[in-house]
Request: fold
Amino acid sequence: MLLRHIAHTRTGDKGNTSVISVIAYDRRNYPVIERLLSAERVRAFYAGIVHGAVQRYELPQLGALNFVLHDALGGGVTRSLALDAHGKCLSSALLAMPIPDEFVPLPGTHKTSP
Amino acid sequence: MRTLSTRPLRLGAGAGYSGDRIAPAVDLAERGGLDYLVFECLAERTIALAQLERSRDPESGFDPLLRERMQAVLAPCVRNGTRIITNMGAAHPMAAGREIIRVARELGLQRLKVCVVHGDDVLAQLSGRDLRILETGEPLAALGDSLLSANAYLGAAPLVQALAQGADVVVTGRVADPALYLAPLVHEFGWDMDDWEKLGQGTLVGHLLECAGQITGGYFADPGFRDVPDLAALGFPIAEVHRDGRATITKLPDTGGCVTVDTCIAQLLYEVEDPGRYLQPDVVADFSGVRVAQAGTDRVELEGARGYARPDCLKVTVGYRGGFVGEGQVSYAGPGAQARGQLALDVLRQRLDDAGIRILDSRYELIGVDAIHGPGLSAGYQPYEVRARVACRVPTRHEAQRVANEVEAMYLNGPASGGGIAKTVREVIAGVSVLIPREWVRTGVTTMEL
Reply:
């Protein structure tokens, strides 16, 4: 199972900082994403893209995590030469992260592939 | 004395960025039953670009879609008693005000009061000051004469003043996006500007609506996982706000999209770094305790935002000329496409390195392979077709032209069967931020009447 089956994501940008939210479709899976996605794990996932620190903010009542990725947008949206200067596509990459068997979500709380 | 509103106020979002779609705003103006229709149209760089425009034509510098939007919504808004608030004034709010009056006259409207809020342009106040760029710590003075614009993020107060003067349309330049929505709440409910909890709640409403369709199912669909009904007919959002700050997000029936707990949480966290400290000119809003609940089809209730005392400083976005970019792209397809694309990049890198061009920054990448996320996440995939892309930032337009021309030369001078070459040269208008004491900013309201 992939993160995609239990959560959705959205990216925003502020200067050279990318902000990625990860939101569990079912709030009961919040403990799964909380355990799966440490700030260190997210930073390692984006190795070569994120050059600064990663902070994690926890919002259990929303079933969500908010990640702030510093030095992640090629020097800043307004000067970056990147095709996706805003880093809008960063969040969808994260959805490919596998969920290890020992983290398995509650039955009936995940989406199946179409 | 003005009577304060006791019924819920209906605010609609008419635009979430400068180029946003107009039809959903017209729908809201005609049948939204709105008290206010708000158009948020300024991205980080928009004012600097508009300033360049204004330097070429002194009566321009406002949003390029201002006329088209006003032609479409002014008449229904006047007919339905819906007041308009917008930052489409960009680099020249006064000229925007005059343009709105012209459009009203052409439409045959009988009367219209437009209030122009100014004071966000602080370029003159910055000269000679010792200020540091927030992003880099460098002195602002190092940008020298490349500076184009400096605009402070104003809060809701001057907009409230404009509404108190009876404006049918309030037009501004740079204002914190949520403040465009906070202003009518403060005006109608008589909230105090130091009632931090209410201002936090109003900021939440503004933040939820400021990107328009992004909360009604836009930018959300992922087939099979997040299906959005009738995305093509996406409707824009409405907030019903109570005097105590509770709010319901909804949209018009018979429009596409959806308003769900998931679309609302995605927008709630969008571009918010620390949800417990969302810095605004009027308040430090705290979204960390917000609760979200589905209250019916396409109806979501939110409550629990808080707030703390406003920051001492205002943020200023500074626009400056940052050189030029020359870019070119060329496609390869069929067997060996990736190898030929990679060869094109290698050849181009060597030619440009040897060309004596002052390259400040560059990208060499294959669209379809590694252009978006680099070599790490894309490893192990083989595409049928690729598009080689080279982009270099250089000091002058001439050097940018040379970069683009080298890519074009892949037709006769590159690997086999490259096609569909495109080249572009553009000036970079970059943006950075500084903080200034709020006392440096003097706002004002100018009224224009038809």
